[in-house]
Design a protein that fits this description.
This protein is α/β, with parallel strands linked by helices and 274 residues long. The protein contains 12 helices and 8 strands. It has helices at 3-13, 38-50, 62-65, 68-85, 101-114, 128-131, 153-156, 167-175, 195-202, 220-227, 241-244, 252-272; strands at residues 17-21, 56-59, 90-97, 119-122, 141-147, 184-188, 208-210, 235-239. The chain is globular and about 60 Å long. 43% of the residues are buried.
């Protein structure tokens, strides 16, 4: 998917919502456990309920790899279902890969050729040769970890060098020599607040994938105030638990759809004023 195609979807739907498919069998409605593939059944039902209100889905690989081959089959079926039934939705494989060049090349092959997803989250801390293998696929995106939403992000990402430059700022500046705003995004946690101002000073036109709204306490309004790009929006705001586990009863899909719609309506107002 190209940048312009993604922007077009955002404008048509008045939404920049990404729904995280962090499917945990301990949290899904218990009646689904009787299904042959409860992970896929849950995902399919959630997707059908939320698709009108979002532009992207983000399955987190950890929740599938935890079940070995069966989990990976569920992941593959989920991707196939999205591509066949909702082909305009932007698919993010949240796998946080990144290794020496030849290993990264195989990871890129896995996700961009075998699974054919639109984008992949990548850890940049092994440097250029660990990232560039992912950037050689036309229409595919690398989403680099920049400033994450977890508490431990402050352990390293905010460390300053002698000139006062923080590590996440160095990542932003250096990585822009590898890719462009047409094939590279950055992960910036919603809990970082006004730090989005600092992000935008360095990366004014790149899309940002923003986890942490909802269950983690991030503010959608604050993210948009400091991080939105006029006209293009430039944000994909992810919500996982706040949508997919809003109910664990028989009405789980209906409630998930309602929660997604509520976020979409908030986003619509922010887009109109963008």
């Amino acid at each position: 998917m190209t940048r312009q195609q993604l922007i077009q979807q955002i404008k048509e739907k008045l939404s920049f919502l990404c729904v995280g498919l962090d499917t945990d069998l301990k949290k899904v409605p218990q009646h689904l456990l009787k299904e042959d593939d409860p992970i896929f059944t849950f995902n399919k039902t959630i997707i059908d309920a939320t698709a009108p209100y979002c532009v992207s889905y983000k399955p987190n690989l950890a929740f599938y790899e935890a079940f070995g081959v069966k989990g990976l089959i569920s992941f593959e079926k989920t991707i196939k279902y999205l591509k066949e039934n909702y082909p305009t939705h932007f698919i993010i494989a949240d796998a946080k890969r990144g290794d020496i060049g030849n290993t990264s090349a195989m990871y890129a092959r896995t996700f961009f050729e075998e699974y054919d997803v639109d984008s992949l989250t990548v850890a940049p801390y092994m440097g250029e040769d660990s990232v560039t293998p992912f950037l050689g696929y036309k229409g595919k995106w690398v989403i680099l970890l920049a400033l994450t939403s977890n508490k431990g992000s402050h352990d390293f990402q905010l460390m300053e060098d002698k000139e006062g430059e923080r590590l996440f700022e160095k990542v932003l500046k250096t990585s822009q020599q590898w890719g462009t705003d047409e094939n590279m995004m950055y992960v910036v946690g919603a809990t970082q607040g006004r730090m989005f101002e600092d992000i935008r000073k360095i990366a004014p036109s790149h899309f940002l994938l923003v986890p942490g709204v909802g269950a983690q306490g991030g503010s959608l309004e604050e993210v948009c105030k400091y991080g939105m790009i006029p006209g293009d929006v430039g944000l994909l705001v992810n919500s996982s638990r706040g949508i997919i586990y809003a109910s664990q009863g028989a009405d789980f899909a209906e409630v998930a759809g309602q929660k997604a719609q509520e976020l979409q309506q908030q986003m619509a107002k922010l887009i109109v004023n963008c």
